[in-house]
Structures are given as C-alpha cells and as structure tokens.
Amino acid sequence: MSTQGLPMKVPAPGLPARVRIHEVGARDGLQNEKQAVPTEVKAEFIRRLAVAGLTTIEATSFVHPEWVPQLADAEALFPLLGDIADVGDVSLPVLVPNERGLDRALALGVRSIAVFGSATETFAARNLNRTVDESLAMFERVVARAKADKLRVRGYLSMCFGDPWEGAVPVAQVVRVAKALMDLGCDELSLGDTIGVATPGHVTALLTALNEAGVATPAIGVHFHDTYGQALSNTLAALQHGVSTVDASAGGLGGCPYAKSATGNLATEDLVWMLEGLGIETGVDLAELTATSVWLAEHLGRPSPSRTVRALTPPPSSSPTRSE
Predict the structure, then answer these.
(1) pLDDT tens-digit profile of 145-204?
(2) Nearest to residue 38, comparing CAs of 306, 309, 274, 296?
(3) How far apart are CA 314 and CA 112, in angstroms?
(4) Measured torsion, CA atoms of residues 199, 201, 206, 210, in degrees rounded to the nearest 10
(5) 256, 262, 266, 275: which is the annotated catalytic residue?
(6) In the chain, N or C: fewer CB atoms in 10 Å?
(7) What is the CA radius of gyration of the chain?
(8) Residue 42 belongs to what H/E stretch?
(9) Spatial CA neighbour of 21 closest among 198, 217, 186, 239
(10) Which letter does DSSP use for residue 267 in this model?
C-alpha cells in the first residue's frame, strides 16, 4: 500500500475503534455505467473485493431489468459467488425494490437485502413511481417477509440532505421517513446524500435529530457522494457522532441513474486512507483494494476517479526519446 510508513497513524479522540465499510461498488457503482459490464467481470470484481478484506459487499439489485439494465444479470451473477464464503465471513446483500424482487432473491438463497426509499416526494415518484407513504406501504410487506425468513434488512433513504428538484430537505422531513422505515423492522438505516450537497454541520444535526426520535446511532450508516468534495469531511462528522458503518465504492464508481446531478460515491480507497491515518481498523488491505480498482478501471476503459488510487498507482512507464 502506502510507502515510507504513510499515512502516519495519529488517532483522534472520540472516534470508533473500528469501522465496517459497506462496499457498494458492484451495485451502486456499476449500475451507473453506460455499458453493461460482463457478468464474469462483475463476479471477479466481487471476489477481489473480498480478498482485499471487505466483508460487506453489495452484490447486485433485483430490480426489473428495464429499470436498471446494467444489473439485469442478477440471476446469472449471484450463483457465481458461492466461493466467496471460502474467503471469510463475507455478506453479499442485494437490493430488492418490491415483493417480486424479493421472490427472485430468495430463490437464489440470498440472506441479506436492502430496500430503497426516498425522503422526498419528487424522487420517490421518479424512482419508485409512488408517493413516499405508498413506497413505505410497499416495503412493509417486503421487510415483514424478509424478517420472517431471518434475513438481515437494510433500509436506504435517499435525498436526506438535498434534492435536485425540491432543493434543501428539512431535517424533520427526513427524520419522519427514516423513523417510519426503521419501524417497519429494518436492522440498519443508510442515510444517503444522493447529490452530494451535505456539509458536516448538517450531518451532525440530522444524526442528533434521529437519535432524539429514537433511532440509535449503532443502527445508522452513512452514504456520501463527493459531488462538492465533502464526502470525507461529512464522514468524519458522522464518525465523531459515533457512526461506525460507512458506505463506499471501490475506485469512486457510481452515481444515480434517476438523479443526473449525483456523481460518484465516496471512494473506498480514500476512506481507508483516512481511517488508517486515524488508527481506525477496517480489515481492508489498501494495496489489494487499489489493485482491484486499477484492474476494474482497465475493464471500463478509463482511470479511477479515486485520488488515493491515482496517488498509489505509478504512471505508465514511457521509453525516453533519443535526441539525434
């Protein structure tokens, strides 16, 4: 990984001793690619992420293929991942939009799922073709069935800090929907800054309001996009509040096909670099992870947007020209 003992470990007070990284590159990252990535490449990507030490790797989404054609191969992909269990205690959650998606996931033996809600009405209409409350009613049956089958359930909540159509989203509005989502029986709540407009004070205010509403910090994860370069500073604010689950995408892949202003996710390598400097354990081998992102970038035909990947990857060697 880094050379000459860098980053130097300088712990800061009041931070978690360990952070669990919820890796979303294979789902949230690849779903935004213009061209579909071959199923075998996706499977190898996930295997390499597991070898790098990531233990929660969101594998795919069981949405209708017409909605997200890049993930239309979910049925073909998931059976290729049976060997991941040999790597260690790895969880491979998948996104399910409704009961039909849940049926497809259960048929393949999936043991961890996520539902994807919205804090705003406009995004709910565009992404789910429902109102916020209608989407919650749809998730109620999905979560109940999943919990009856002893599945772990994560609730994603998008547009928690801003919406490209509605603008600033009031904290109380987010808290209402977040609390309703958790009341359905979700084990974990992921707060999504879908268009990357959050700032640290806003993050702290929302986390505090959620605690006051009865949503405990250990049940909260954060999902930041780096549109305005705020993802790491927002993550640090969440860590200072006690959050110990952080979503990230290897190589900084991702966006949102339903919100064009949503750019890449927080890069996993950038997150790991910061956490290592703070002396926070992740279990991730940064060198292995960086190599994985470089490998995938070659398949995608473009360099990784992660600054850490670029810093740790030597530029291609070029033969010196000989002057006559």
Answers:
(1) 999 999 999 999 999 999 999 999 999 999 999 999 999 999 999 999 999 999 999 999
(2) 296
(3) 38
(4) 140
(5) 256
(6) C
(7) 19
(8) helix 39-51
(9) 239
(10) B
**Is 256 tagged catalytic?**
yes
pLDDT of residue 5: 87
What's the N-to-C CA distance of the chain in angstroms?
A: 40
Number of Cβ atoms within 10 Å of the Cβ of 35: 8
Q: What gap in Å lies between CA 316 and CA 324, rounded to an integer?
A: 25
**Any residues with CB less than 8 A from the CB of 27 and at least 6 apart, and which?**
58, 59, 60, 61, 71, 94, 95
Checking if the pLDDT of 211 tops 90, the result is: yes
Residue 143 sits at the vertex; the CA angle it makes with 138 and 146, to the nearest 5 degrees, is: 130
For the record, the structure tokens of 225 come out as 């996009």
CA distance 2 to 308: 10
* Residue 163 Cα distances to 160, 166, 253, angstroms: 8, 5, 21
CB contact at 8 A, 252 and 305:
yes
Q: Tell whether omega for the bond before 314 is within 30 degrees of 0, i.e. cis.
A: no
Structure tokens at 317: 């060697």
Angstrom distance (rounded) from CA 231 to CA 134 = 31
Length of the chain: 324
Instruction: List Cβ neighbours of 6 (8 Å cut-off, separation of 6 or more).
Output: none
Residue with tokens 């405990």, as numbered in its chain: 216
Local confidence band at 66 (pLDDT 50, 70, 90 cut-offs): confident
Cα-to-chain-centroid distance, residue 27 = 8
Contact 216, 196 (CB under 8 A): no
